[in-house]
Amino acid sequence: MSEVDEYHTSLLAIVELLKNGTVCFVDPGSTKFPDACLQAYEDSGVRIILGECVTDRAFPWNLPRYPTEEALSRTKSFIGKYDHRLGDRLRAWAMPFSAESCSAGLLRGLKKLADEHGTGLTLHHNSGPKPREQYLAEHGLPPTEYLEAIGALGPNVLLAHALGLDDAEIDCLARTETSVAMCPSTAAKEGRGVREHGRMPELLAKGVKVALGSDSANSSNHLDLVRSMNLAAIQYKDARQDTGLIPAETALELATLLGAQAFGLGDQLGSIEAGKKADLVLFDTNRPEWQALFNPINNLVYSADGRSVHTVIVDGRVVVDAYRQSFVHEARLFQKVQEIGERLQARTGITFPRGRWPMV
Fold it and tell me: Edge-to-edge strand order for the sheet containing 179-182?
């Protein structure tokens, strides 16, 4: 995409996030033109954590790859340029893609940069029988313990997905105070096997801070954190055949207090108490899915979705009022993004699958 394309598509994502009640999110190195998107971040009032995706090893995917020292230099420059660019609303992190695509030297160096600048680091991370076998052959350690051994874990590290962990790896995360962002909709849609590989209850039991994610457009297809709460709450009940797992209150904490703590922002965000930022989401309970209303947390997690978000406040500023935002003309934006998508397909020669049924 061009800079203009990315500006408009970022605006679309922010509209969906805010109108569904998400006020703070991590973009794990996906934005290629952050300067082009700064105005969108500023106008919308959203909180965002950004970074530049870097790798230094061959990888099957077409990822930004640099010599190790250049990757470190680029990350240092990015943090220096963007961290606190919009005050507390914009933070810059180190963002290696994964341990498979980055050398131990790069991961160690990025963790050191994050420590020195008082910021964070995030990367994609999974385990399971096959990855453990590969890591043991190459490094002599399972995936998560390898990250600990090279010094790439800690309280300012957030691992995305974290499926397939064994008990020793969960203990490793708890011991190092490393956090996790889990994406229930992606795990379900991509058939990643929550029954075999999902360990959210065990992570929470060990005190690991878990946040909720939505992943990319074609891995999840929505940016509705209320739907993510619902899936987190019901996924493990079914997988383990235990209705006591991930109760509604815990699901809500994943989207608020635990999520803020996983981002390293627990002292500022995530709960309504004196001294914290005024980030608030108000739901309209005068809707059919909220009836009858005896336990509002149950209604929110098991009955509602983001469409009942009425008002959104970020740092005391109302950014969504009576279901409406005022920083962009939505109909024009939707048409613009449709045009961008059509031009992108024409430019690349890649067409989106239309499905088995004819469209009329």
Answer: 121-125, 157-161, 179-182, 210-212
